[in-house]
Amino acid sequence: MRRGKGNGEPAKGGRGKRGLLAQLRNPPGGRNARIMLLALAVDRTGSGLWAASSVLYLTFVTQLSAQQTGVLLGAAGVAGIAGSPLAGRLAGRFPVRPLLIGCHLLRLVTLALVLVCGGFDALLPVVAVTYLGDRAAKTLEMLFATRTAGERRAAYQALSRSAANAGYALGAGIAAIGLAVGTDAAYRALILGNALSFVVAAALVWRTQEPRETSTVVAGAPTAADGKRPPVRPAGPWRDRGYLTFVLLDIPMNLDDSILNVGLPLWLVNRTSAPHALVPAFLIINTVMVVVLQISVSARAEGPHRATRAVLLYGAMVFTCCGFLAAATRGGTWVATAVLLAAALVVTLAELMRSVSSWELAVLLAPPDARAEYLGVAGMSQSIQKSAGPPLLTGVVMAAGPAGWLVLGALVAGLSAVQRRACARRLRTLSASAPARAAPVPAP
Question: What confidence score (pLDDT) does residue 391 get?
Answer without folding.
Answer: 86
